[in-house]
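Quick one: Phytoene dehydrogenase from Eutrema salsugineum, structure tokens please.
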Amino acid sequence: MVVFGNVSAANLPYQSGFLESISSGGCELMGHSFRIPTSSQTIKTRTRRRSAGPLQVVCVDIPRPELEDTVNFLEAASLSASFRSAPRPAKPLKVVIAGAGLAGLSTAKYLADAGHKPLLLEARDVLGGKIAAWKDEDGDWYETGLHIFFGAYPNVQNLFGELGINDRLQWKEHSMIFAMPSKPGEFSRFDFPDVLPAPLNGIWAILRNNEMLTWPEKIKFAIGLLPAMVGGQAYVEAQDGLSVEEWMRKQGVPDRVTDEVFIAMSKALNFINPDELSMQCILIALNRFLQEKHGSKMAFLDGNPPERLCMPIVEHIRSLGGEVRLNSRIRKIELKNDGTVKNFLLTDGSTIEGDAYVFAAPVDILKLLLPDSWKEIPYFKKLEKLVGVPVINVHIWFDRKLKNTYDHLLFSRSNLLSVYADMSLTCKEYYDPNRSMLELVFAPAEEWISRSDADIIDATMKELEKLFPDEIAADQSKAKILKYHVVKTPRSVYKTIPNCEPCRPLQRSPIQGFYLAGDYTKQKYLASMEGAVLSGKFCSQSIVQDYELLAASGPRKLSEATVST
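--- reply ---
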């Protein structure tokens, strides 16, 4: 999830100036900040919350849910174990991986588990790709996106367990909370009772909510969903050709259901509206949420992703003899006479050779770097339809502790905003008893990605005025902005529009020794952190299966590399 235009990377000229502005671990992020002097300002401490009304949400971190007995968790655990139990290679493969986002990190981790020697190259000076984050001069972190870890992320949950960092996830109560635009400052919630199994807990949550949908709308929506519940994954994949809006109308679901619920869900899942989003994306999420008791339960990471999640993966890779290098941007994929990869040429003029190569950067960057002789191969030509969607992540520090914020993810149901959270409540590292820091996903962002940060903040404040009518005014006559950061990602996850599924490539390419990893590659979790991790496992599995073929091609000299932290 959140973790999300239109300058088409496929049509941009191949030139060093442009390549210098993009990253092999994620699209270039244009992060900007602004500060309002506060030296003479007294920050007032607020410790008392507004008395709880019927829609007031008061949450605390709860114990980790029992995920280990679900079918998907066990399948993910079995795949992880297959790397550790694989026969040790007589001669480990030297695998060069471009991009240290979750897909690249996952690939390197599981290859190392299987006894091979990955070399992970990241273009920027920060790990994480789409989950990267930076620390400002005050020591405050600002991130690429607002990242939520669901119970329905079995490979991610296994990864945390394998690294021994389960305690770094801060689980929240099992609810989905939506703002009510018609009642500024109020919220409606879907509560999933722990005493009921799936799908009864989800059905109960929907039936108990009477603020957003009427009973006739609930019944029509439930009838519309029956084919998906009965047909399973095959039915879900067959709906790729329809947008959310088209599918809802075909199933006789009232438009108001789309307006009340699925605009917010579409923007949260892929940063676009229901008239563009493939219904397959929504059905995959709903299937997981309805079929797994804790599938829709959410957790926040307890701090910044590069240090709290990415570095443990790097340390694991290092402990098994793998290597990671930052500031290593790829300029060109150089080929041998037979069309296979000779080496990766970096922007500093050095070359990196290996027994196998993995491109784990976003699809837009891959398309820019594809060798000319590969572009007409159907496997690569189909990538033309996969295009990253722009997204903007906004962080605003206020001069006071806001009362109408909760320890949970909130769906804004705003025209300009997707989801948001008061990170001073939800995240231990960002905790602040005296002031709130709102992190907000600004989406759809296509029309805003080129606008100034000031314009984006002004528009955000106008939306926040509706969410916090008693506390925030667009002119800052109420809560004052202490500072803000705006992080723009011109090309984030691939835009999951109808008929994209046939264009998603398998991890093993038709070029011997060349593989792909990334959430855009073929796996059932689409554009998500779970999808990125699973793609890395599938990529590693393909390389392990191809060991004899790759080893027979002969050893290649691998440049020395150091780990940058």
